Amino acid sequence: MRDQDFLNHFLQKEYFKKHSKVLLALSGGLDSMFLFQLLSTYQNELEIELILAHVNHKQRRESDWEENELRKLADAAELPIYITSFLGDFSEARAREFRYDFFRKIMKEIGATALVTAHHADDQVETILMRLIRGSRLRYLTGIKESQVVDGIEIIRPLLHFHKKDFPPIVHFEDQTNQENTYFRNRIRNRYLPELEKENPRLKSALLDLGREISDYQATITELSKQIDVEDLNELFSYSQQTQGILLQNYLNQFPDLNLTKAQFAEVRQILATKSQYRHSLKNGYELIKEYQRFQICKISPQADEKE
């Protein structure tokens, strides 16, 4: 594919229409280096100011050398780059949390309103299959969102419709640990997907179609339930148990960082059905407040923390 094809896609989707200053998460891999090439080349056409951010995870001997090479790359492109090193015991989850905390901090300092990452269609396939194997709720099988707002920051993934094979073979850093099967995602990529594709060579397309179909159902449910006040329990309980569950799940979609497990979701339903006045701490700083025939879910206030 030509670079112009990617640019046309970006313009058609209007990813950056509301943003003038964006932060690119630059890992050094093929996907992020190609996205860097696109965004830096077409800054004027996209009407953006580009800033770079890199996290050195300190897990490989090459990490420091790659960090220096990325500094040189930023200097050559005359773009600012912010770099930090991961601290603490390494795990995929802790590293991801560390990265996004760093990105949020930089964005606040520089006034950027969008974080851009280089997730692509192959990442999407792996994510959907991982969640399917783990038994995730149906709404999570839509996979990674093309764009989403978390804590006031819009995360944009403009390459999500493209596969890695669509990217040109430009200079990048190859992480050899991607070939190791220590982590679940690596086993999905290196072992499970190749085996399953022997049964269905179009498995990747099928998983992507599944994610899109579930997303369409969710959009339909949201549209049809706009007139339903889910927080009014008299109204919610007027529907069947099955419909109540779907409406409540759809209501929870407005809290993207809440992510209740099936057991926690069942606990919320039990509280709504049996308690009259009740406050219940959920996860990630949220609480459920039940007052007779109404309820709401909100962030725990400092006063609530003090009282607790």
| Assembly category | single chain
The residue ranges in which pLDDT falls below 50 over 5 or more consecutive positions are 304-308
**Mean pLDDT across all amino acids:** 93
- Kindly report the spatial arrangement of strands forming the biggest sheet: 3-2-1-4-6-5
Q: What is the radius of gyration?
A: 22 Å
Beta-strand content estimate: 5-15%
Main sheet makeup: 6 strands, mixed
Structural class: alpha/beta
Treating each run of at least 4 consecutive H or I residues as one helix, how many helices?
Answer: 12
What is the share of helical residues?
40-55%
User: What is the H/E order?
Assistant: HEHHEHEHEHEEHHHHHEEEH
Could you give the count of β-strands? 9
Straight-line distance between termini: 57 Å
Shape: globular
3D architecture notes:
This protein is of the alpha/beta class and 308 residues long. 48% of the residues lie in helices and 15% in strands.
SSE layout:
Layout: H1 3-13, E1 21-25, H2 30-41, H3 43-46, E2 49-56, H4 63-76, E3 81-85, H5 92-110, E4 114-116, H6 121-134, E5 147-150, E6 153-156, H7 184-199, H8 203-224, H9 233-236, H10 241-252, H11 262-274, E7 277-281, E8 286-291, E9 294-299, H12 302-307
Parallel strand pairs: 1-2, 1-4, 2-3, 4-6
Antiparallel strand pairs: 5-6, 7-8, 8-9
